[in-house]
UniProtKB/TrEMBL annotation:
Family according to the record: In the C-terminal section; belongs to the Thz kinase family.
Designated name of the protein: Thiamine phosphate synthase/TenI domain-containing protein
Stretches assigned to the Thiamine phosphate synthase/TenI domain: 11-206
Taxon lineage: Eukaryota, Fungi, Dikarya, Ascomycota, Saccharomycotina
Gene3D superfamilies: 3.40.1190.20, Aldolase class I (3.20.20.70)
Segments passing through the bilayer: none
C-alpha cells in the first residue's frame, strides 16, 4: 500500500448497492468511478452475510488495485482482513476504534465518523491511531437515515477549526448531501475561512446515476474548482476603505431570469453600464451559459408561474457548479404564502453571491415580521441601526452580500471573514427612481456586471461600487428631468456616460 500520509481523499466514493440503476451492477459503477476520478473507495454493505460480503469485496478490491486506489471496508474488520483491504471505517455505533486498530495494525488506514464536537473530541483524544474522520451529515440527504440535524457549512467549519487547533495532522472528508452543484462553494468557503478539509465523500450522485463516468468527472471537477479557490489565491482587501471595483472592458455577460414587466429596461440598463445581457429561461442551455467566462446570473422572481420553480432551481445548480455569481431578488417574497415558499426553497437549494431586496422582503427572509407589505413595496418602518443588525445576521447566515434598497441603501458583507460584518450605507438617488417601473429590478443587472468583473471574494466591494454608481446616475438624471418619461432617458444616458470600465 502507498504511504498513508500521501493518500488522496479528495473524491471519496461510498458504495450503496440499493441505489444502482436497473441493468447496472456495483462493479460497473465502481469501475467507471475509478476511471474518472475517484481517489478512494469505501465498500459499505449492511445486508450481505459474511461469505457474500467477502466475495464482493474481493472483486471490488481487484478493481481498486488495478487503479492504485485504496479500498476501505465499512465496519467489518473481519472482511477487511480476509481480503487484505487497505483500511477500515467505523461509525460511532460500531466497534471501538482502539480495538479496531489493535486488530488491523498501524499500517492500515482507520477512519471514524463524527457528527458533532463531542464525537470529534473523542477521536482527537482517542488512544487509537486514527488517520481520518468523516464529518457529516453536511446537508440533508436521502441516502441515510440520520437522527441529527445537518451540520451545514458553518457546522463543518466549526469542526475543522477544532482539528486545526488541536490535531492538524488528522485528515478529514465531509459527507452528506454533497453534489457537483454545492461542492465548489462548500470547499471554497471552508478554505476562505482557513479551515481546510481533505475531500468529499459522495454516494448517490455517483452510485445512483445512469452515467457514473460523467457524474464522477463532474464531481472531480467540482472538487478541483473548490480547492483552487483557496485562501492563498484570494486577493483579500484589508484596507478599511472599500476598494473601488469597475466593470470589465471584456463586457461581462449577464443572464437574466427576471420579471417579465422589466426585461427591456433591465437589458438597456445592463448595456449602459458595460454588460452584455441574455434573457433565457431555457433550462437546457443553463449549464452551457454557466461555463462562459465573466458571466453572472440575475434571478428575479417577480413574475413566477407554476413552471418557474424548476427553472429557478436548474439555474442555481448550473451556476453554483461553476462557482459563477448569482444575484437573487426575492420580489415580494412576503406578500403571499406561495412566494414565501418559493423563497424558502430557493435559499435551501444553493449559494447566492448577492441577495437584493427592499426592507420587507429582506425582513421576511430574516424571519422578522414582514406582513406589512403592499405588492412589491415595503411599508415597514425600522431604524437604520436595527435594520443593519438584522441584515448582518442574515448576511452571515446566507454567506453572501445583502443589499437593502431604500432611501438609504444598506450593503452588508457576509462573505469576508471579519470579526463583525462590513457595512456600507449609501445615500443618493432621487424619488423619481421610484416612479419608473423596474428601477429596483434593473439594479440587479448593474450589480451583476460589477460582481462578474472581479472575484467572488470581492463581491462586497463590487456591490458597493455598483450601488453607488446607480444612485449617482439617478441623482444626476433627476436634476435634468421634468418627470418619469424624461428621467428614464436621462438615467440611461448618465449610466452610459459615467460608467466605470477597467
Amino acid at each position: 500500500m502507498k504511504d498513508k500520509s500521501k493518500i488522496d481523499y479528495s473524491v471519496y466514493l461510498v458504495t450503496n448497492n440499493e441505489l444502482i440503476p436497473e441493468g447496472l451492477t456495483i462493479y460497473n459503477q465502481v469501475e467507471k468511478a475509478l476511471q474518472n476520478g475517484a481517489t478512494i473507495v469505501q465498500l459499505r454493505e449492511k445486508e450481505l452475510d459474511t461469505g457474500d460480503f467477502i466475495k464482493r469485496a474481493q472483486k471490488i478490491h481487484e478493481l481498486t488495485k488495478t487503479y492504485n486506489v485504496p479500498l476501505i471496508i465499512n465496519d467489518r474488520v473481519d472482511v477487511a482482513l480476509s481480503i487484505d483491504a487497505e483500511g477500515v471505517h467505523v461509525g460511532q455505533d460500531d466497534m471501538d476504534p482502539v480495538l479496531v486498530r489493535k486488530m488491523i495494525g498501524n499500517e492500515k488506514i482507520l477512519g471514524v465518523s463524527t457528527r458533532c464536537e463531542e464525537e470529534l473530541l473523542g477521536v482527537i483524544n482517542s488512544e487509537a491511531l486514527i488517520d481520518y474522520i468523516g464529518m457529516g451529515t453536511t446537508y440533508s440527504t436521502s441516502t441515510k437515515v440520520v437522527k441529527r440535524a445537518p451540520l451545514g457549512a458553518q457546522g463543518v467549519q466549526a469542526l475543522l477549526k477544532i482539528i486545526s487547533e488541536q490535531k492538524p495532522e488528522l485528515k478529514s472528508v465531509i459527507i452528506g448531501g454533497l453534489n457537483k452543484y454545492n461542492i465548489p462553494f462548500t470547499l471554497a468557503n471552508c478554505s476562505y475561512y482557513g479551515f481546510n478539509t481533505n475531500g468529499v465523500a459522495v454516494v448517490s450522485c455517483i452510485m445512483g446515476q445512469q452515467d457514473a463516468a460523467k457524474e464522477t468527472k463532474d464531481i472531480a471537477n467540482s472538487v478541483k474548482l473548490g480547492f483552487r479557490s483557496s485562501l492563498s489565491e484570494i486577493n483579500e482587501v484589508t484596507s478599511e476603505e472599500i476598494q473601488q471595483i469597475t466593470v470589465s472592458s471584456n463586457k461581462p455577460v449577464i443572464h437574466f431570469i427576471t420579471n417579465s414587466v422589466v426585461k427591456q429596461f433591465s437589458a438597456n440598463v445592463c448595456i449602459a453600464v458595460g454588460g452584455s445581457p441574455i434573457m433565457s429561461e431555457l433550462t437546457e442551455e443553463f449549464c452551457q451559459f454557466a461555463k462562459i467566462p465573466n458571466i453572472a446570473l440575475v434571478l428575479n422572481t417577480g413574475t413566477p408561474s407554476t413552471l418557474s420553480l424548476n427553472v429557478y432551481k436548474s439555474a442555481i445548480k448550473a451556476y453554483n457548479s461553476q462557482m459563477k455569481p448569482i444575484i437573487y431578488d426575492p420580489v415580494a417574497c412576503g406578500a403571499t404564502g406561495s412566494r414565501r415558499l418559493i423563497m424558502e426553497e430557493l435559499t435551501s437549494v444553493g449559494y447566492f453571491t448577492v441577495i437584493k431586496g427592499n426592507m420587507a422582503e429582506l425582513c421576511t427572509m430574516a424571519g422578522v415580521d414582514g406582513s406589512e407589505m403592499r405588492g412589491v413595496d415595503s411599508i415597514m418602518d425600522l431604524d437604520i441601526e436595527k435594520l443593519t443588525s438584522i441584515l448582518s445576521v442574515l448576511a452571515k447566515n446566507k454567506r453572501c452580500v445583502i443589499v437593502m434598497t431604500g432611501k438609504i441603501d444598506i450593503v452588508v458583507d457576509g462573505i469576508t471573514p471579519t470579526k463583525s460584518p462590513r457595512v456600507a450605507h449609501i445615500s443618493g438617488g432621487d424619488p423619481l427612481m421610484a416612479e419608473i417601473s423596474g428601477s429596483g429590478c434593473a439594479l440587479g443587472g448593474v450589480i451583476a456586471s460589477y460582481v462578474a468583473s472581479t472575484s467572488y471574494f470581492q463581491a462586497f466591494e463590487a456591490t458597493v461600487s455598483a450601488v453607488r454608481a446607480y444612485k449617482k446616475a439617478g441623482l444626476k438624471a433627476a436634476s435634468k428631468s421634468k418627470g418619469p418619461g424624461s428621467f428614464t432617458i436621462k438615467f440611461l444616458d448618465e449610466l452610459y456616460c459615467n460608467k466605470e470600465v477597467k
